[in-house]
């Protein structure tokens, strides 16, 4: 059998995981069988089992791959050298979620909800999700502390409390998009601006922040 390159191996894994996501969207995690995944992938059973030992490993791989890819997109916003003001930050964060969850004809918002549900009874999935969300919360807390330095938010406020509120908002936007739709970046940014009005700065006076809607 001819050897295949690492790029070919990764492409084959991605092909299988895309099949997993499509099956989960149609039939749910527990309604999907290995036979469904094999058929959807267009590969032989032997080819699929060459990369994954079974459904449990596929569940973990599908969720961990999703979170790893999303982490890269979010870090581009969270770790910017010059911190975005609150409104542009909200817009860029929701844009990152949207870019990641709607691609190649697959809407991953539903898969995210299934992953959270699976985490309630699957300790391995819960560990993956908890680790991701803990790191996400820490990064948001750092952003809030930088906002406090720029006087975007009150310096006496608890940075972690604000970060938890932001985390709830961003996670809630995923739920809304999956169930109701309409949680696009422009809509949510306008909503936050309308809710809090002039109390939420878009950036330093006289300077247009990257990502601003204006």
Question: What this model shows, in words?
Answer:
With 214 residues, the chain is mainly α. The protein has two domains: 52 residues, Homeodomain-like (Arc Repressor Mutant, subunit A, Orthogonal Bundle), CATH 1.10.10.60; 138 residues, Orthogonal Bundle (Tetracycline Repressor, domain 2), CATH 1.10.357.10. It contains nine helices and two strands. A two-stranded antiparallel sheet has the order 1-2. Strand 1 and strand 2 form a beta hairpin. The C terminus is likely disordered. Keywords: DNA-binding, Repressor, Transcription, Transcription regulation. It comes from Brasilonema octagenarum UFV-OR1. This is TetR/AcrR family transcriptional regulator. Pfam families: TetR_C_6, TetR_N. InterPro entries: BetI_C, DNA-bd_HTH_TetR-type_CS, Homeodomain-like_sf, HTH_TetR, Tet_transcr_reg_TetR-rel_C_sf.
Summarize the structure.
Pfam families: TetR_C_6, TetR_N. By secondary structure, the protein is mainly α.
Strand content: under 5%
The third-level CATH topology of the largest domain is Tetracycline Repressor, domain 2
Q: How many domains make up the 3D coordinates?
A: 2
CATH architectural name of the largest domain: Orthogonal Bundle
Give helix and strand order, one letter per element, not per position.
HHHHHEEHHHH
Residues in helices, as a percent range: 55-70%
Q: Count the strands?
A: 2
Distance between the termini: 58 Å
Mind telling me the CATH class of the largest domain? Mainly Alpha
Class from secondary-structure proportions: mainly alpha
Rg, rounded, reads: 20 Å
| Major sheet description | 2 strands, antiparallel
Total number of helices = 9
Q: What ranges have pLDDT less than 50 throughout 5 or more consecutive residues?
A: 205-214
Summed over residues and divided by their number, the pLDDT gives a mean of 87
Overall shape: it is elongated
Assign the CATH superfamily of the largest domain: Tetracycline Repressor, domain 2
Spatial sequence of strands, sheet with the most strands: 1-2
């Amino acid at each position: 059998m001819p050897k295949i390159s690492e790029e070919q191996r990764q492409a084959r894994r991605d092909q299988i995981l895309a099949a997993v996501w499509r099956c989960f969207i149609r039939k749910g995690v527990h309604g999907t069988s290995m036979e469904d995944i094999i058929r959807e992938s267009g590969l032989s059973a032997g080819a699929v089992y060459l990369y994954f030992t079974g459904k449990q490993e596929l569940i973990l791989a599908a969720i961990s791959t999703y979170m790893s890819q999303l982490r890269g997109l979010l870090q581009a916003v969270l770790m910017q050298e010059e911190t975005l003001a609150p409104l542009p930050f909200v817009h860029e964060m929701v844009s990152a979620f949207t870019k990641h969850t709607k691609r190649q004809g697959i809407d991953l918002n539903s898969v995210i909800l299934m992953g959270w549900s699976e985490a309630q009874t699957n300790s391995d999935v819960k560990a993956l999700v908890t680790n991701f969300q803990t790191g996400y919360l820490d990064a948001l807390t750092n952003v809030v502390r930088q906002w406090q330095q720029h006087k975007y938010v009150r310096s006496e406020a608890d940075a972690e409390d604000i970060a938890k509120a932001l985390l709830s908002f961003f996670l809630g936007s995923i739920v809304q998009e999956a169930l109701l739709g309409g949680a696009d970046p422009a809509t949510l940014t306008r909503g936050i601006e309308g809710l809090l009005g002039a109390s939420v700065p878009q950036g330093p006076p006289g300077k247009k922040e990257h990502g601003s809607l204006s």
